[in-house]
Amino acid sequence: MSVLEVARVAPVPALPHWPDGAHLRRVLAELRERPALVGYERCRALGAELARVAVGRAFVVHAGDCAELFGDVSARLSARKVAQLHDLTSVLAHASGRPAVALGRIAGQFAKPRSCVVEQHRGESLPVYRGDAVNDLTADAAARRPDAGRLLTAYDKADEILRHLGSRRRPLDLYSSHDALLCEFEQALVRIDPASGERYASSAHLLWAGERTRTVDGPHIELLASVANPVAVKLGPHATPGDVAGLVEALDPDRRPGRLVLIARIGADVVERRLGPLVEAAHGAGAQPVWLCDPMHANTFHTAHGRKTRAMSDILREVTAFVRVMRSAGGHPGGLHLEATPNRVTECVETRDDGLSPSDLPRYRSGCDPRLNAGQARRVVGAFAQAVTP
Length: 390
What we know:
Helix 1 (21-33) runs parallel beside helix 4 (149-164) and helix 8 (271-284) packs parallel to helix 9 (312-328). The chain is 35% helix and 17% strand. The model is unreliable at 1-12 (pLDDT under 50). The longest helix is centred in the first third of the chain and has 22 residues, at 75-96. It is globular and about 55 Å long. The protein has one domain: Aldolase class I (TIM Barrel, Alpha-Beta Barrel), CATH 3.20.20. The chain is α/β, with parallel strands linked by helices. The protein has helices at 21-33, 40-54, 75-96, 149-164, 183-188, 219-225, 241-251, 271-284, 312-328, 374-388, and strands at residues 5-7, 59-64, 100-105, 118-121, 124-127, 175-179, 190-192, 199-201, 206-209, 231-235, 260-264, 290-293, 300-302, 308-310, 333-339.
């Protein structure tokens, strides 16, 4: 994949602009008629498992691709992703002596919020790649034009992955999740559980709102508040105690363990200072959310050649600091949220180094952000397991 140098602009909209509104409306009408991708019983089962995590009786490994690619969908790769998640949860469960829930960034992680609207490629300004559900990774102006028809392909590919995982014949071996970035898509797949009468998001067992879309009165939190699935929110380095209190009130009004997951993506350099007040704010609001550490997103940097990467030294530092802060604040460090792949990639490096060259990242295959390979993911989970084990 060619290096794409990001051109930053502000302010930046997180959502894509669909140029053909009539086409979008036709696509959404079709999605509203399609079957649910997941059933409500499994969503409720995940909530029950997360409730055990919230009270300190279990852990979570939430991991998978930064951005799933349509062209990568296959039975073989799906099986390898499941095997990796099972391996990571086994590492954590064995070391900690407590069960670990396998939650995948899988079967729907086809859209990405971006911190810029354009990229520079060989001197040409192009619309930024926003995930296969929106546009194409190919560095071409026509390919980067958002196309609502890709939402139908996203549904089809998610369905294919779930069928590869056996969901039509037996329960999944893990739970599926993705970023609820594309509100129109998610709203079109909201269904009613006939047994309970509750509304639930049928595109995945768990949806999350990202750091850029977690505004309490915004459409993403409104969507999550309207469904009965367990839901999650990412909290970046600028999140405030007031933000947390507002999110708890909006998303967990009954203060029910297992309903709300808070994913801290704060950064190795500042997590010790900024996480504690957020944990205390949740406790002060009477909530008992699941707390996960995302040590990836706030530790991204660019090499001198424009390639995004992450350093294992930063990732491991944030993981251990997260556990310390959670313990000192009286909370349970519930687990990890990782961007990882079973493929033999070199997208993350050992330490920050201004002299990194393309040869230091010879196998860079991610459609967006750098992922941990299998060995690196195991090391991160092992470090977390060691930190939480008395």
